[in-house]
Amino acid sequence: MARTKFIAGNWKLNLTIAEGTALVKSLVVPAGVEAAVFPNALAVHAVAQAAAGSKVGVGGQNAHFEEKGAFTGEISTSFLKDAGAKYVILGHSERRQYFGDTDALINKRLKAVLAQGLTPILCIGETLAERDGGKLETVLKTQIEGALAGFTAEQLATLVVAYEPVWAIGTGRTASTAQAQEAHAFVRSVLRNVVGALAEKVRIQYGGSVKADNAKELLGQPDVDGALVGGASLKAADFNAILAAAG
Ligand code: PEP
Fold first, then answer.
1. More exposed terminus of the chain, fewer Cβ within 10 Å: N or C?
2. Helix and strand tally (H, E) in the chain?
């Protein structure tokens, strides 16, 4: 099954409006590749406007599960959509680690994302202690089943999953191509049980210190359908090299 490669840049709490709009305008997306950037929420609107008419989509880094109301400080999917977002990252390990995101909470956020017709990127991944303790498969299965509980395959038609081993995020340490492919194949097997035939269509991105010099090999694995890139998405030259590797 041919799946369109999807390269996403997670800018996290980096890049001002001026920096983000300049960067997005200098991205070059090869034919047949899907690309998106995820600016700070305050920059989503400006970056989406700067990217209008280009091949780069824009998304939010998280979203609250309610649309509006008395939720001081939160950002909802309807506001993200209004600002021009087409995608939302959910369950990033930094959200899980620092902000208490649980699988149940991610499940609620996912419902709101799908209700707005936005494309979710569900992040999953194990810590080093979990991998070393032989819990890789249990952790991934629990995270997938917990986040997707209660949805039909039809509702999840646009789902994207990002496998991001926590020990490889921002550390310069990348999973080997064999480790990545093994985990991705396992993720797809779990997805088969949860969403049936749709599993063959779900893009599974790899995330964790993806750089120009390792992107091609990782993206060459049969179940690696793209990349979720942090640090290397902050500079046009670095991100363009990864985009080129996906083409
Ligand atoms: C990420 O934030 O999802 C990520 C993979 O970061 P980095 O590429 O910097 O490891």
1. N
2. 10, 8
Rounded distance between C-alpha atoms, residue 36 and residue 8, angstroms: 5
Question: Hunting for tokens 């093994």 — which residue is that?
Answer: 182
Q: Which of 34, 92, 94, 184 is catalytic?
A: 92
Indicate if 164 belongs to the active site. yes
Which listed CATH number (3.10.450.50, 2.30.40.10, 3.20.20.70, 3.40.50.261) goes with 5-246?
3.20.20.70
Number of residues in the chain: 247
Q: What six digits make up the tokens of 199?
A: 């599993």
Q: Look up the pTM and report it.
A: 0.97
> Any idea of the CA torsion for 178, 170, 233, 4, to the nearest 10 degrees?
30
Q: What is the mean pLDDT of residues 4-26?
A: 98
Tens of pLDDT, residues 124-141:
999 999 999 999 999 999
What pLDDT does 152 receive?
A: 98
